[in-house]
## 1
Amino acid sequence: MITCLTGAATAQQRAVVQGRVVEFGTRNGIPADITVPRVGRVVAGGNGEFRLPDVPVGLHVVTVTALGYQTREVQLDVKGDTAVFIELEVAPVRVDSIVVRSRTITVRGHVFELATGKPVIDAEATIGARMDRTNFAGNFKVTRVPGGAPVTVEVGAVALFPAQLIITADRDTTIRVGLRPDSVGQAMLDAAVKKIEERSRAVQMTRDQWDREELMRFPRTIEQLLLQRYGRRVVPTCLFVNDINMTIGGAELLASYITDELERVEVFGRGSMVRLYTRRFAARKSGTTPLPPILMVLGMPGGALCR
């Protein structure tokens, strides 16, 4: 499925094309390659978000590719800033019964916290040069792994000690990996979240906020969470994901995120500005480098100034 939202064109007839690539049926974000001929190529983040900031107005063919998924070509008539939401289907396994090839296997796995048994979301599972991230259920899939030879599986996640194991399998196999809490990593994450919270206090607007522990009580999309909180569908004037301006996506983007994959949600002015932070992003902000200030000025040409 492809969903497009289009805003006004700029005076220079250039536009921003941004959005999210997700897996069909699960809505898991996919770190896909997005290519636009004569414009450029960008790699989507781990949650599938991408942004092409300087696209000429006109007709373009966008090619979206990702390992393990069917390639898609999307024709876009860019008339102004545009948000695109693209679902990719898992690629079928091709069987060649004539040509003999080096045997490869698929390694699937489930990552969980040893202390609680809960699935770990967005953990990185790496086998050689191939990597996958766990989905909402804590599951990953790494394809084209050499079969019949020892391979090292490395699994890591924020605020948890990494695990490493060696497996040898002649056929597709499934493993379970338990990760232990890392108190130092958790303390660094807590410090980062506190720094994000302190920044939000400087904004002269009413504020609602949910951290991970509170978000885990609401197994639903962010759109549904805000609907429950405010009794209406929230269409933010300014929307940020990991400090990246994704305003064009609006409520459609809110519907693509579930509470389990986020570390913190901030809402200002009862929905005027919404800011989403993933666990991985928050962990990277634990250092001493100050965060850029939050700014939202209403009444500007075009509606609002957000950053």
## 2
Amino acid sequence: MTQFSYCNEGKSMIVLRCIGPQNFFLERVIFPKEVFLFLAPQESKVEIWGDELYGPKLEQRLRIDTLNKDLPIAA
């Protein structure tokens, strides 16, 4: 497991969704200026979803790997 953090620097709520190997799944609403810290398996995929007038919008896609495990905020 790798420690990962995400800071919502925007002005509205976002949804963080993490999908990993061996049926790992995490979904969380993150409020503006909130920092969310969690553990996830290597090679997990993180999606950041925002909201538009027409519905949800994929804003960012990240992968948790050895390159960003030492960073305090990976996004």
## 3
Amino acid sequence: MSAAKPTRESWADGDIYGVSVPVERASVVLLPVPFDATTSYGRGTVDGPRAIVQASTQVDLYDVETGQPYQAGIVMLSENEDIRAWNETAQAAARVVVDAGEDSDAAAPRVARARDQVNTLCTRLQEWVEAETERWLDAGKIVGLVGGDHSVSYGAIAAHARRYPDMGILHVDAHADLRHAYQGFTWSHASIMENVVRRIPSVSRLVQVGIRDLCEEESERIQASDGRIRTSFDTQLTNERFEGATWGQQVARIVDDLPRDVFVSFDVDGLDPTLCPHTGTPVPGGLSF
């Protein structure tokens, strides 16, 4: 395969894997969302979509298990420059809040203004993601989201939940993401699944896999959910395999907890951090390829 490699700065609308496909002919549309303003440790996911497009040219188009799935048409849309600008503004405001620290007066005018600015920009982002996801679903496409941090997925989940009532979510992650307004940010990456279960009642089940870092508040949230949130902790999965359970048996149990229609939400830190060493919040343990 010979293909021109996209630069780090930009790519043509629809390019990925070094193959240019007209959007109207594609079955799968990937929506890049370069936004990571609420990231609480290592930054850089804002450049995730660019890095994925660039790395995709090194992947052979033939796959042993699935053959040539690219023939169905997979495209990555070009970035919306407004989102990167929102991110830069929100990042600067978020630093004011984070630098003030938990012991500061969160109601101090400067801190409160900065926090409100972050929340306003994040709300604008969620509305944009939701509208764009709706637009491509209406066009008959399978829509995927490429972040950015995990918070960007709320709008896409909301759009799918309207189209698929009683939808479930398969959530692969190191973190439960069930904190309430973490660091004062309503749309924090640490609050994405809390926002989903609280704001989208039509999501019937949240099935979490690989979780190994959560606070007491999140543990209580899971226990009080009456089975709506079902979590397979990483230690549980590992101990079961030490005792003889196969990965296939574990997967079958996890899938049995899901309804017919499923939205997959995958955070790269669900993997062992040796496989993704630059993830922003690495946690020992995790899934392997």
